Amino acid sequence: MPETKVRLATLDPVWDRLCDEAREAVRQEPRLGGLIHGGILHHGSFQGALAYRFALKLASGEMSEQILREVADEAHAADRELAQAARADLVAVYERDPACHRFLEPLMFFKGFQALQCYRVAHWLWQQGRVDLAYFVQMRVSEVFGVDIHPAARVGRGIMIDHAHSIVIGETAVVGDNVSMLHSVTLGGTGKSDGDRHPKIADGVLLGAGASVLGNISVGHCSRVAAGSVVLADVPPCTTVAGVPARVVGEAGCAQPSAMMDQLLKPAV
């Protein structure tokens, strides 16, 4: 490979910015030096920092940090998409969450981002047929972060989960790219039937706090589900639904609801 291509292949602006922010954070608050060095600066790559966080947060008396680190390192070595998706998630949080001012914050402090990256390792394990270990990761993520994502669920990249408390995503759910959701969102089933029984959330959707989307239904791209709504039927693209049960109350209000994060219902003109 030519030298120029080698240099380009090693560029990682997300990781470079994380390290710069970490050094500045240590300068401003030296008492956090051990925490931030352990979480970021002691690692040679973004993948290493993600694997360390995975192991540190999920370790317990049942499974050691060392074993979990080996699992995460193996997953990231085998599938570069894990870190690519994490980069997109990190940027999504930074761009959409007004409480996020640095790349450092989701990686070190925001449980929505951290829980999502742990899910991604669990999903990789599930795809490898390592079902019991995937279930163990799901269990620990639920215990540690209060986020319960089945390892078989399919979740795209560029996901922002704000606050993240009490998020539930079922086994056959599908979440597209660039989706934003707030706390207490449920993507669940409607009974005991097996098979494909969970929602399909298209790209660019905004799911408000406490929204429940139930059953094998579709939420069309760039739509909004208002806070507290219970969605039991398909949602057309580029619309806003609200209520219990939810009904269409208007258009989405903008081209990219998940990016704009505008959750107000505008009166009809």
Automatic annotation (TrEMBL):
It catalyses: L-serine + acetyl-CoA = O-acetyl-L-serine + CoA. GO terms for cellular component: cytoplasm. Belongs to the transferase hexapeptide repeat family. The gene is cysE. GO terms for biological process: cysteine biosynthetic process from serine. It comes from Falsigemmobacter intermedius. It holds the Pfam family SATase_N. NCBIfam families: cysE, EPS_EpsC. It comes from the Bacteria. Its EC number is 2.3.1.30. Transmembrane segments: none annotated. GO terms for molecular function: serine O-acetyltransferase activity. Residues 14-118 form the Serine acetyltransferase N-terminal domain. This is Serine acetyltransferase. Pathway: Amino-acid biosynthesis; L-cysteine biosynthesis; L-cysteine from L-serine: step 1/2. Keywords: Acyltransferase, Amino-acid biosynthesis, Repeat, Transferase.
